[in-house]
Write a structure and sequence with these properties.
38% helix, single chain, 21% strand, two-stranded antiparallel ribbon
Length: 178
């Protein structure tokens, strides 16, 4: 493998990644640790997590953006094997409802086409309707970040150690808990 190919150890450049996606007119809602930071609890994260709009045109733009930075699928990590369709392909992305862990030259992206909260599946439209617009100078384009309620709901559903920490920290940051 050449030094330019993405690996799990690729130094993340999240702002560059968000700029690339937004600049390519990819519509998505940011969820996960980076969204948690933008919602008030700054912590480290190893990736960005996005839920893309599930239209064919949007997913094609997403595919083009990801392949331009050499996206390669990674291990299953916290996902169930059935959530990670193999192989990662344009057809699989556009036609499927799968989730992928992708390593790129700009860092890791968790591409989520299926997410849940305590009430069950959350659609892109539901996430987008509640999302908050964030303008980051480093990105140069507005991005949409999952609402506090949706973030907490998804983290309650996942119920991992880091999720429980995030829930408490977010509630404290918003004055909902002491």
């Amino acid at each position: 493998m050449s030094s330019g190919e993405p690996t799990a150890d690729t130094q993340p450049r999240f702002y560059d990644l968000l700029r690339l996606l937004s600049g390519n007119q990819v519509e998505f809602v940011l969820i996960g640790g980076f969204a948690v930071a933008l919602q008030g609890y700054v912590r480290t994260t190893k990736d960005i997590d996005i839920v893309p709009k599930p239209s064919t045109d949007n997913l094609s733009r997403l595919w083009d953006a990801l392949t331009s930075i050499d996206a390669r699928p990674g291990e299953t990590a916290d996902f169930k094997p059935e959530e990670l369709p193999v192989p990662f392909s344009r057809e699989g992305l556009v036609e499927g409802q799968g989730n992928w862990i992708l390593y790129t030259r700009l860092g890791r992206v968790d591409l989520m086409q299926y997410v849940e909260d305590m009430d069950g599946e959350l659609t892109y439209d539901e996430l987008r309707a509640g999302a908050e617009r964030v303008d980051l100078d480093e990105v140069g384009h507005p991005i949409w970040v999952a609402s506090l309620d949706h973030l907490i709901g998804m983290k309650e559903r996942a119920n991992r150690d880091q999720d429980r920490i995030d829930i408490t920290a977010l509630r404290m940051a918003h004055g909902l808990e002491e």
